[in-house]
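Q: What would this complex look like in 3D?
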Amino acid sequence: MHAIAFIQDLAVIMLVAGMVTILFHRFKQPVVLGYIVAGFIIGPHTPPFELIHDEETIKTLAELGVIFLMFCLGLEFSLAKLFKVGATAFIAAFLEIVLMIWIGYEIGSYFGWKTMDSLFLGAILAISSTTIIVKALSDLKMKNERFAQLIFGVLIVEDILGIGIIALLSGIAVSGSVETGEVFATVGKLTLFMIVALVIGILLVPRLLAYVAKFESNEMLLVTVLGLCFGFCLLVVKLEYSMVLGAFLIGAIMAESRQLMQIERLIEPVRDMFSAIFFVAIGLLIDPKVLVEYAWPIVVITLAVVLGKMVSCGLGAFIAGNDGRTSLRVGMGLSQIGEFSFIIAALGITLQVTSNFLYPVAVAVSAITTLLTPYLIRAADPLSIKLAKAMPRPLARVFGYYGDWLRSIQPQGQSAVLAGMIRKILLQVMVNLALVVAIFLGSAYFAGTLAEYLSEWVASPNLQKALIWGGALLLSLPFLIAAYRKLKALSMLLAEMGVTPDKAGRHTERVRKVIAEVIPLLSLLGIMLLLMALSASILPTLELLVLIALLAAGVSALLWRWLIRVHSRMQIALMETLEQSQDQHHR
Amino acid sequence: MHAIAFIQDLAVIMLVAGMVTILFHRFKQPVVLGYIVAGFIIGPHTPPFELIHDEETIKTLAELGVIFLMFCLGLEFSLAKLFKVGATAFIAAFLEIVLMIWIGYEIGSYFGWKTMDSLFLGAILAISSTTIIVKALSDLKMKNERFAQLIFGVLIVEDILGIGIIALLSGIAVSGSVETGEVFATVGKLTLFMIVALVIGILLVPRLLAYVAKFESNEMLLVTVLGLCFGFCLLVVKLEYSMVLGAFLIGAIMAESRQLMQIERLIEPVRDMFSAIFFVAIGLLIDPKVLVEYAWPIVVITLAVVLGKMVSCGLGAFIAGNDGRTSLRVGMGLSQIGEFSFIIAALGITLQVTSNFLYPVAVAVSAITTLLTPYLIRAADPLSIKLAKAMPRPLARVFGYYGDWLRSIQPQGQSAVLAGMIRKILLQVMVNLALVVAIFLGSAYFAGTLAEYLSEWVASPNLQKALIWGGALLLSLPFLIAAYRKLKALSMLLAEMGVTPDKAGRHTERVRKVIAEVIPLLSLLGIMLLLMALSASILPTLELLVLIALLAAGVSALLWRWLIRVHSRMQIALMETLEQSQDQHHR
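A: Here is my prediction, written as structure tokens for the whole assembly.
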């Protein structure tokens, strides 16, 4: 009976994992490490005998563990939080990731590893471990201090950038090359996909969940959540992105639902079960022989992680305007690698582009840096005091000036309000344009299928194209009009600010009006050209295009108010969902 | 990538299950039926195309669903509840199961099916569906009425007897024959195993769970619970019982833990996920062609289930002393088959003793009877009024007399207290003896391994045997002494009651004393003979046996008080656990 072997595997995994984690907990070490050690104990590389029969099924379940881990990360993520963490988090995370990828790549090259191994090593080192940090900070009872809040901000940005790294690595592994143009195209497409998925998802999913929640059945809600989660992962895979991305995105979408707390409560046991299997499966892969063979690289990489992250995150925090002590604490708190590294290492194996030793090396480095984390956090304060004493006076003064200068250039009072408004308008324009671009890309993608349907009524391919293109334009109209109106508001604002009476004298009003009219029209023209480039494959002949444009203009003129109303209703629905969920995120 | 096919399967299962169950919920039908219909839709027998790629993995996960279902059934079970439900539940459940197995067997034989098919059909029809009944009664808001409480009692006894049926069927399927002696041996061994597992389990598991719960980590508690659950299932499988039995037993053991509520909250989402897969997997097996081909048997079996259960359960409830109306409501409430039937049908397939058509037939009958359940419950009251009117006067009077007679023979006042005491003592003796029997059977089972260890020090096989047998006796001493003391108390009680001064005159005291001494000694002698028979394979020579017996007597005399203290400490620990958990079972 196949099932008995499977139950036996599960029994061994859970029993050993349970015992080891209890031991680890007693000695105040993270549970995650316990799982990995448990996997190592029952793994094929350690005596006395092979305890796992069906490694293939366990690995499949471990994949589910990754999905649930990323899904829960998404649930804990929130757009509102992302907007709040501000510059510090962005700068520190970006600096950290770029620097660590570079350091990792250089280390790999130094040891003479394959290009792909070095690249993946860089990616493995790039992202710190949320679980480990949360665990360490709550053990040390420092969760509510300012530097801890900064660390959480950096982690959120890291998650987003990490998703991007995974998408990029998948692309590079498939194509086998790194080209700047390709990178930009990948990042662009990824951003587009994420914006569209988030907008559509936040419009639909929380409403569906609220409907199911009305039945007051935990079971139905869970099945719906799992269906949406796996279904979305599948969609993302069909679009040739990683499942991990899908799980994170659908989690972030559900984070905006009113049922968030209930979903978290229901999904947590499921995640705990499968993530335990995931971490044990990591331990299964550890071969002590590999660890001995690669002892030297492991030491070097561990040092690189600790020092590299300390410097890059600390520097990032400092550049963004924090004092030296806080910056050092942020840097030392982030000095480890964890679950994201395992996911990236697993990606390399799945895509068959990395060597076998990379995974165990990553696990070993993660284990050592995880063990170091609490000591590093505790050592940050004494170290900052020592550093401050040892620093030469002039250097300290320069650092002080930097902080003062930074504060002086920050927009204050009215200009801060204005800057906020401009940022908000630009964001709205971007979201609307992203939706338009998605509509056109989508029509181009489905043009073949659509043309086949249309061929029953319309014979000429040109007319078919015209109909498809026209349909896409019609669908885009509400978003185009909204973008145009936002841009107009923005240019009026800019005209008001830029063209002052003491510069333009009595022409002030006229110049302002011209600027306020010309900028949005020009940008709209630019957008249309971009759209045409994007939808080159379904572009009809010029005459038809002019005809469509005229038609669209006519429709816009006739339905202007109605289109605006449609758009604003969507926008209100979106904002309501976001605000409702924001009330819930009091965590 | 294998994992993507797997995720796709899960996505399809959860999405379709989610949609269908929402539809079913809207039309007030049980969610379980929705799952089965969802499985039917995505199954291989329905167009448009095969939606599941890896049926094998799904079936393995469905096995997990069975384990979690039975585990949760065990969690909801409680020994205290079992003792409370009393005679009604036992009589009704026993009558129902015997009658339904017979009816099922006869129907199978009538249609000319194989003996094994007929036997499994009987077992499939024997047990009603807890989930369906709970759902229907709470929908009808009748959960707290008296007849509903009786139904729940019957369901608890059914679960226990059902576990026995599964063990018996497995035995019969392997040996291929039904012999009375074998049946008794199987039931005896099963009872023994259950008692020993419960006593040891309740002594150890709640303590372990309380220890883990101190760490206040849901994750660790869940992993421990899962480890114990799978580990115990594995142990049970090694002893050649069904995994289902193991899951139920370990659930019943954990039901006595203080962490019960927490465990239920953690395990519910996991159960919901896997039981959804289980029910969908059932739907996958439905082949419409089989349903059409077996339409006639399905109709006959459905009628047999409804009428048979109505009569057997109703009669059982009536015999146990309930009025006609309540009895009819109990009978009509239990008129369906459900998850237990699927488990038994699946057992037949796994053991490869039943034909392929049996499973879909069982599912079809279950679906129809499930749909009928709420209507039957609602129809019970009008029907009982009509029956009462239509019944001839004399018959009604006979029924009335039966009730009066039953009430008159029930022990009242002091004799009721005495009956309760005797019952309690007998139960304690039985538990102690079961443990002794288990120790001897265990030593006989492991004699080979033990002898190998001993052979390093002791050469003679006879001496080895003597050591093993003596060790078993030593281990049993506390339980033997406890059983002896309970028996002594019982015989004193009986002597006090049976030998009254008006019968024995001035010899009263002496006769009482003789009876109080002789009965326990005789029963102890009987026990020893039984033990020797059970441990025939490890029995040493007579001289050694006498030596051991003398030694044991010496040890008993020397350590009498200490042995009693050891035993009473264990008993107190057990009782405390049971009482603590009883406070929690306020559901």
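A: To summarize the key features: The first helix of chain B runs from residue 2 to 26. Chain B touches chain A through 54 residues (CB under 8 Å).
Q: Very helpful, thank you.
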